[in-house]
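debug: dumping io for the single-chain case to check the tokenizer round-trip. Nothing else runs in this session.
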Amino acid sequence: MVFLIQGCVVMALAIVGAADGSAGKVRRQVDLVELNHFMDDDGREVFRQVIFYDWSHAAKRYHVRAWRLIKKDSQQPCRHWRPSGYLCTWTDDGEIREVWAGQMKETWSREDPERINRKYLPEAQRVPLFE
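debug: decoded output
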């Protein structure tokens, strides 16, 4: 079953991890999720992406852990009240992946925030979100 609630797609997954073992669920948590609309010079959206960040106390800034292109509206962050936070859900290789964040921001930019963040923490030094 799929429900559309305030622009968020919510799936009723009563049979996750059913007897055939075809679907498992992996959940991670980050400090911040960004929904970024990358725009061209004429103000048209080129793509949407979600960027997952953790706060670095040492650097006093957010560091990117991972990013993902939005291919379907159901992959956008969805506000939840209990527990409070934002949830991104998608499926990779038959496995359901969920990422919870306590905070969310939405941006429109002509520069990719994930690439800018590489100046502060190179991709090779990121803590993987999923291994």
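debug: round-trip ok. The first strand starts at residue 2 and ends at 5.
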